[in-house]
Amino acid sequence: MVIINNINGWILLDKQLGVTSRQVVTKISKIFNIKKVGHAGTLDPMATGVLPIAVGEATKCISFIQNKIKRYSFTVKWGETTNTDDLEGTVLEKSNVRPTKNQVLDILNSFTGKVFQQPPAFSAIKIDGKRSYKLARNNIIVKHQPREVEIHKLSLKKIENSDFAEFEVLCGKGTYVRSLAKDIAEKLNTKGHVTAIRRHSVGKFSEKDTIFIDFFKEIIHSPSILKKMLPIEAVLDDIPALALNEIEARKLKLGQKIQFNSLEFKNKFLNKHPNFQEFEKLCAIRNNSLIALVKIETDLVKPKRIINTYK
Q1: pTM higher than 0.85
Q2: Mean pLDDT, the chain, as a whole number?
Q3: What φ, ψ does residue 61 adopt, rounded to 5°?
Q4: Most buried of 4, 45, 70, 153 (most Cβ within 10 A)?
Q5: Is 238 annotated as catalytic?
Q6: In the chain, what are the domains?
């Protein structure tokens, strides 16, 4: 085990097949001997692709990346539903119906915009404190209420053959690709489940920027991971930054509120961000270092999450 102090930032991982998002977090925690590790957006064990891992103080910013638009490609097998909505489950129903390319194209627009989607029984959603997938594995009937999600774009990439079709989707937070595949099949009067899922991007984080770590290896060397770690601010580049002087930064770091009108660089901020109130939180910075996530209310700059990296 390598003990390294003051590790704060993002590991942009290309998650491999057969590993859960929780297993990734546990392994990273052990590699660096650090407890504060989390992931932004769960990927199924059978899914691969971009999985942002927050380490140290970056865990305080996970919510910002969870809300980003995600891009997936996924393959649907027509004619069968499974209890997990993917190829790892048990077949429940079958259909001889195989949709044509034109039939698929005709229904895609009905899945764009804000739509209601029923999460899979085999998901990480908690029911009375227990994970849904654990209940489902014990043959306890699980049926979630439909939830509103946003699909920005859904397109057909290719028809592999009469049994398989590949799609690409741009979607918002909380979208289940497995549920989407099942719903597409039902709209086409057939059955279906996913056989492959890959996440290509989360916000501006793309698969071309990821690193691959083989989590089936017993020994994983940390230096190569640290070299490619991104700073905490990497997920906050689209949020207004409020510059502070040294005294103001120290006050915020101590959890104190500051009068907005008294800020030294207030006018520069207002000129650059006249509509700053549209944002739920702002970044308070000093010399390009993140001090805290703040909210401005009734002329007060209030620290919401203090980032303990500024010295």
Answers
A1: yes
A2: 90
A3: -115, 10
A4: 70
A5: no
A6: 9-67+205-234 (3.30.2350.10), 70-202 (3.30.2350.10), 239-306 (2.30.130.10)
